[in-house]
Amino acid sequence: MAQGEKHGSTPREARRIRILNAVAIVLSVVTAPYALIFYLMDARMLGLLVLPIAGFYALPPLLNRRGHFTASRLLVFTVFNGAITLYTAWMGLATGIGLLYFASACLPLVLCDLRERALLVYGIALPIAACFGLVVVGAPPVDPLPEAVSHVLHALLVPTTFAILLSQVLSFAVSNARAERALDVRNRGLRLLLDSTDQGFLRLDAEGRVRPERSAAVDALLGPVSPGTSFADALGGEVGAQFECGWAQVGAGILPLDVALDQLPTRVSRPGCELAIAYKPIARSGGHEDVLVVVTDITAEVERARAQAEREELAALLLHVSRDRAGTSEFIEETSAVIEALSGNAPMDRARQLRSIHTLKGNFALFDLTSLSGACHALETAMKEECRGPSPSEVALLRGHWRAFAGEVAPLLEHGRDAVVVSKQELHAALSDAHEGFDGRVRARLQTWALQPLGPRLQRIGRQARELAGRLGKPGLLFTVEDNGVRVAAHEYAAFWSAFTHVVRNAVDHGIESPEERRAAQKPPAGRVRLTTVLEDGQLLVELQDDGRGIDWGAVEAIASDRGLPCSTREDLERALMSDALSTRAEVTATSGRGVGLAAVRDACYAYGQAGTIEVESAPGRGTTFRFRLPSARLCLRRSG
Q1: Residue 43 burial (10 A CB sphere; 0-12, 13-18, 19+)
Q2: Which of 402-416, 440-454, 471-485 is predicted least confidently?
Q3: Cα dist. 104→95, 124, 150, 179, 579 in Å?
């Protein structure tokens, strides 16, 4: 019994107390008349000895009531064996008194727990020692009783022995039946409780097989699971394979059990259902441990979280509309064009598909559409790991998700779609020209107003770069913009600007160091990035300059050489930097590291033919400058005056 545990506090303890009380009462009632019988048959000494024995038998129920269960059992064992020894001393070993020794040896087995070793040894050894002593002494050691008394004693002791045994058996049977009924009631209550919950509970043995005990919800959540089935088979698919690998670590015992269980899969996706799985060890006898598995249907929670995330993302997109209506409209049009190209019938190689997905991921992140950005990241990861393109179902899912967002915002963008954006400075310049009578200059200015100013787009890029820097732990980024009043046709450079976000993200993520690294390099804690657009020789020049760590040309050369790319000249290294799947980052993150972004910018720039060029300048510790020269099929005008 555990320390501090009260006698009778457990069902087994209470059952043993009831059996002892019944045996003691039977012994007291059966033994008391012997005193009168022996007295009337002139065996007065024997009668006087029997009377206190009957009184001692009446004490155990009183001791048990006060909680002295061990003392009451010691008293019964001692008195009962004393009475048997006394009887045998008169009657001899060859009599039916041997039955009483059997009854005495049975008492400890019925009244003691197996953990009470000392009490068990005492109760069993006592009749054996008494019998052995009588054999050594030679029973009967006292004068035999009169023949009539012996006959009566023979006639009474045998049924007495059976009465004692019967009382033990009946008490045990009755107590056991009560305990079983109570256990059945308790089990039915527990079963009703478990089956009334929405969670599924089941147990796994050391081999990862399902034990028979489980709640009804398990079959509803996982499907019919037969006892003895491997839980990996019940999970099925990739999750089942993941569980099987993780369970091998559990069985190996190399890691602590709690740590090994943490490696097991905790989420299962079924058609129209999301399940969460938790594992908890259950101690069993023999030092072994089973594992309790709790399966919870979290479909509603996932849907609520998804709906909440969509509301937050839609609110963020509406905020972008209020800040920059034209820029958001361009983003929606460009994104829709990329997604439609992915889902169209026109052939597209895997590299281009990967670049498109990567571009979508970056643009979604810039507009705070984290769920779409995360979906693109997961799709991009699967494409890279499995060396495949996106499946039609994956593209359809992405397109449906995007259309839901675009459809919510589209009505807000319709108003003012044909509006012309003119700054006060441009308006005052036009009015000044008109006042001075310069009709040609006024006409030229008015023609530029039909084009789209690059200033708002560049400001938007700068704002998104600062937000990205904050998320990456590089706060206070100084992003300056110089648009020089350049205006261009609305959709002329759509593909380029869509891919250009990769250059900006790389500058913030790869180029700009952390505040600690910048202080160590004796730089200002906040990084600096400058974005400039200008017209040169009839071309649009876009320049992005940062003061970060610069490009590790040695790493570029090593990777290019390993992949068999030309790397002997600086031009070779610049081309290698723009090639597919080349990145100097050791790890892949949701921001960068796949070597896809610059390849997408390269394709967008080279789509203009030989007129589109890229220049890269970079020195270790001094930053990097990218220059893109793009021709224009339509006139790009600089603000004059």
Answers
A1: buried
A2: 440-454
A3: 16, 8, 22, 25, 93
In the numeric block, the tokens 């019967």 are attached to 166
Beta strands 528-536 and 478-482, pairing class? parallel
- What amino acid occupies position 219? D
Say yes or no to pLDDT of 31 above 60: yes
Quote the tokens at residue 495: 């593909």
Q: Hey, what are 353's tokens?
A: 């598909």
Please check whether residue 62 is in contact with residue 53, taking contact to mean a CB–CB distance below 8 angstroms: no
Angle, to 10 degrees, between the axis of helix 11-40 and the axis of helix 147-195?
Answer: 170
Q: Specify the range with the lowest mean pLDDT, choosing from 91-95, 169-173, 299-303, 339-343.
A: 91-95
**b/e sequence 162-191, b meaning 16+ C-beta within 10 Å:** eebbebbeebbeebeeeeeeeeeeeeeeee
Distance CA 633, CA 630 (A): 10
Question: In sequence order, what are the beta bridge partners of 210?
Answer: 204
Residue with tokens 């049009």: 333
Q: Which amino acid is at 73?
A: R
Residues of 301-320 as b/e, b for ≥16 C-beta within 10 angstroms? ebeeeeeeebeebeeebeeb
Count the helix, strand and coil residues of the chain and give each as a percent rounded to the nearest 5: 60, 10, 25
Minimal CA–CA distance to 325: which of 393, 433, 245, 410? Answer: 410
Is the CB of residue 107 less than 8 Å from the CB of residue 76?
yes
540: tokens are: 């649009």
Half-sphere exposure of 79 toward its Cβ, with a 13 Å CA cutoff?
Answer: 23
Contact 341, 374 (CB under 8 A): no
The whole-number average pLDDT for the span 494-511 is 88
DSSP 95-109: STTHHHHHHHHHHHH
For residue 33, the model assigns a pLDDT of: 79
Residue 51 corresponds to which tokens in the numbers above? Answer: 């009377």
Rounded Cα–Cα distance for residues 454 and 452 (Å):
6
Which residue type sits at 421?
A: V
Give the model confidence (pLDDT) of 316-367 as tens digits. Answer: 888 878 777 777 888 888 888 889 888 877 778 888 888 888 888 888 887 8
Give me Rg for the CA atoms of the chain: 46
Q: H helices within 439-521, ranges in order?
A: 439-448, 455-471, 494-506, 515-520
Please state the φ and ψ torsions of residue 294, each to the nearest 5 degrees. Answer: -115, 120
- Spatial distance between the Cα atoms of 363 and 496, rounded to a whole number of angstroms: 13
Inter-residue contact 407 to 414 (CB < 8 Å): no
pLDDT digits (tens, 9 = 90+) for 262-313: 889 999 888 888 999 999 988 665 455 788 999 999 988 888 888 888 888 8
d(CA 231, CA 265): 12
What is d(CA 54, CA 316) in angstroms, rounded to the nearest whole number?
91
**Tokens linked to 381:** 């990861």
Residues 6+ apart with CB under 8 A from 33: none
pTM over 0.70: no
For residue 25, the SS3 value is helix
Q: Report pLDDT for 590.
A: 43
The SS3 call for residue 361 is helix
Q: What are phi and psi of 282, to 5 degrees?
A: -120, 120
**Cα(317)–Cα(315) distance, rounded to whole angstroms?**
5
Distance of alpha carbon 418 from alpha carbon 546, whole angstroms? 36
The most distant pair of C-alpha atoms in the chain lies apart, rounded to whole Å, by 158
Residue 417 CB contacts under 8 Å (≥ 6 apart), including other chains:
329
Residue-level pLDDT at 523? 93
